[in-house]
Amino acid sequence: MYFAALLARTEDGWEASDTELDDVETLSDLAELAREASPEDDTVLVLIEQEDAWFGVVRIDGEDDPRIYVSDAAAAARSSYGEILLTDELLGREPGDDGPDLDALDLDGTEEPDGDSDDDEDGGSAEAVPHSPVGDTEILDDLGVSEKELKALDADDALGAIAEALGASEVLETVR
């Protein structure tokens, strides 16, 4: 089960809104959705969690590039919402470097089936994504959540702990 919310900082404090990510296909789409939540170009946080597996924070400050933190890249890579956050840059790979070069393979139909090709391919791509946090660990430093605190959060209560540190737990609970 997924939960996603937008927290927009305003003059009066934080405002929360739940958000539907079904139409979001790219990080750019997500950033645009977040910017629409704050007409004044204030800070907007997109908080995403998959129950007990991983959480992600995307920070949008005006027109700046989004800053991203994902608690467990490998777990996030297995979900459609996580794939939006796991950009090549975030994973430290060159753009378009996600699979074998099909032009370099000799696929004339005479290959010996080894029975493991699908498993090898899936295992290889999963190994490229670490079972650890990725992204900007200082994403919330200026808002009261240090790098150490962020890394120590468990996926099952991370968004609540972040909202509490921001003083936004009540507004987040209204959309949960």
List the helices and strands in order: EEHEEEHHHHEHHH
Q: What integer is the average pLDDT?
A: 84
**Rg on CA atoms, Å:** 19 Å
Shape: globular
Largest sheet geometry:
6 strands, antiparallel
- How many helices in DSSP terms? 8
Hey, roughly how much beta strand do the residues contain? 15-25%
What is the distance, rounded to the nearest whole angstrom, between the alpha carbons of the first and last residues? Answer: 12 Å
Class per helix and strand makeup: alpha+beta
Describe the structure.
The protein has eight helices and six strands. Helix 7 packs across helix 8. The relative contact order is 0.18. It has 176 residues and is an alpha+beta fold. A six-stranded antiparallel beta sheet has the order 2-1-3-4-5-6, with helices on both faces.
Quick overview of this protein structure:
The chain is an alpha+beta fold.
Secondary structure topology:
Layout: E1 2-10, E2 13-18, H1 27-36, E3 43-50, E4 54-61, E5 67-70, H2 73-77, H3 80-85, H4 88-91, H5 117-127, E6 134-135, H6 147-152, H7 158-166, H8 169-175
Antiparallel strand pairs: 1-2, 1-3, 3-4, 4-5, 5-6
Helix pairs in contact: 7-8
What descriptors fit this protein?
176 residues; alpha+beta; 8 helices; 6 strands; 33% helix
